[in-house]
Task: structure prediction
Amino acid sequence: MLDKNYLYTPGPTPVPPQVVAAMGRPMMGHRSEEFAKLHGEIVAKAKLVFQTANDLFVLTTSGTGGMETAIANTVAPGDRVLALVTGNFGERFAKIASAYGGVVTKIETPWGTTFDMDQVIQVFEKEGPFKVVLATHNETSTGVTNDIAALGNYLANTEALLLVDAVSSMGAMDIRTDEWHVDIIVTGSQKALMLPPGLALVSVSPKAWPVIEANHGVRFYFSLLEARKSFEKKNTPWTPAVSLFYGLDAALDMILTEGLTNVFQRHARMTKAARAGARALGLKLLADNSVASHTVTAILPGTEVGASDLSKILQKELGVTFAGGQGQLKGKLLRIGHMGYCSELDVITAMAALEMALHKAGVAVGLGIGVKAAEEALL
Amino acid sequence: MLDKNYLYTPGPTPVPPQVVAAMGRPMMGHRSEEFAKLHGEIVAKAKLVFQTANDLFVLTTSGTGGMETAIANTVAPGDRVLALVTGNFGERFAKIASAYGGVVTKIETPWGTTFDMDQVIQVFEKEGPFKVVLATHNETSTGVTNDIAALGNYLANTEALLLVDAVSSMGAMDIRTDEWHVDIIVTGSQKALMLPPGLALVSVSPKAWPVIEANHGVRFYFSLLEARKSFEKKNTPWTPAVSLFYGLDAALDMILTEGLTNVFQRHARMTKAARAGARALGLKLLADNSVASHTVTAILPGTEVGASDLSKILQKELGVTFAGGQGQLKGKLLRIGHMGYCSELDVITAMAALEMALHKAGVAVGLGIGVKAAEEALL
Result:
């Protein structure tokens, strides 16, 4: 079989050749003027994608390290935290807050659904105040997108800080960091930003800084105060992952050249196509249309053939990688990532692979049905 | 001027084209069998370089994050820590221990010298016991190498754990992790391992594990227990920097193909050449021959022209980057990194640039003198 793979995991995602080429540039000293210039430009471009005028930092760590940075700088032992848990990554966010001694109240919603704003307000008013509220913008494990705008608007009138995990949506979906009053928002490099893993990007609001300045929970590497101090010299406190910075600069150029609105629309259309295709093949979608993520589509095969068997056929016979389920949905789900360096035609390819895999597994499915529905959704 | 740069910073160091090419390989899912296989192979090869049979972990963070990992997993508030500080990075190691609530006793030695084993034993016996001892193998800020073998032999008969920063020497110098009884040793990817920054490698001894298991200071991302749990499935707890893993595999192959002994001898010879060259040019060396680092040579210009002026000429007129001084030696030092993807001829080039820069700065220096001395040292 040709050694050509089609990667549809919701991170790491394929890296564009332009970005690969940029990452191959020769090393430079990270204390040089040249690096300071690059760093400044990257941060300015990233702020456009984040739609923020807030401070923004590029950290050498994975998305989870970015989430820990958000918590470590704001949550001290005994602090009350409200965690809106809509899946595996919401669970992780809550877990990190507990690890920092936060007293965590969880609002859990069934996987595949979003948090309910009325319930959030009710809990907040009955059991509040909370110092920090944790939410997931795009829950990678279930393929739903939560309404951060509504949450942010509500919390703006409270003392609480809003910390948002946007690891799998920033750069793909319309996230209005400032308009939505998000105090700390976190993303990772290996999703819609089209880079390999290794960087986390974090923005910090003026409302968050006094809390961070008063916090003593953070130890060393994840200190935002150190990051801010170094950034004043356009530098980073610890050695940055230089090659990923080169790549990030190139990837941000690609996003801004395509245009944010076009990028957002492309992702919305890819979701529509993937969902139409899967439905036409008789498969069940975990999330409702109204809350469906634009970056990952979660499918419950609902056929006599399980998700794991389909995954194996896709992988071994077609060179196509979808992700499986996580946590309580382990083994039950197929997740198709369609973000970053992914075009509408790539989604058609995924649909073709899906219907061929179903056929190979012996499911009575009309060939071309999924592809046709996806094409119709796009035209 | 031709856009060609000669990078002699002691990290980041130049990345070999073979490694750049490897890093450009297409992304793969980090939960795939293929990644598990790669991960297993990398760890096996890295253990050869570390000369250890201990557990070894590849973490997605910079060297400082690796140092924090060592501390976070072993030092709890109130624990007594002995820090042997011989320069800027020894200082940082001590600082991290304080950040974790360690009660730190420091033995500081003048910059450019190593710790004195008699003094260490004296302090240990008078003021001990200590739970953890921190030492720097190769102090990047001053270009000295400390005698970890002697320290480890002594501590092996105590309860204390030995934590060693080998960020700027692992893969360049003969470090016998197990023979020297080092409990946790840390390195970074961007030094002798010839990669861009972004990874830290950490090995953990059987003596360290019970301490780590009993420790509750670590919060989340830097947990070695999580790393161990995931490694049993050849995996990583958080998303790994996949492209750097590709590169690390290729870089380890290069090191093992050259042969560890040859690699160590090459670095020893490069130091000899750099020191002979600098001396012939009438420059002062910060460290004595007997303790000179094999990866970085620190020069006090000792001429009417300062280190900063020489740096500027080297950079702007010759495309050559040396590092400057750090901490108390800021502005006073020239540091030449010669590690990783650096050959003996590259050191000759550095000497040529150095004597040309001196000449350009108006210092009466015989051209060719430094190069000649370096060549003689090599032949």
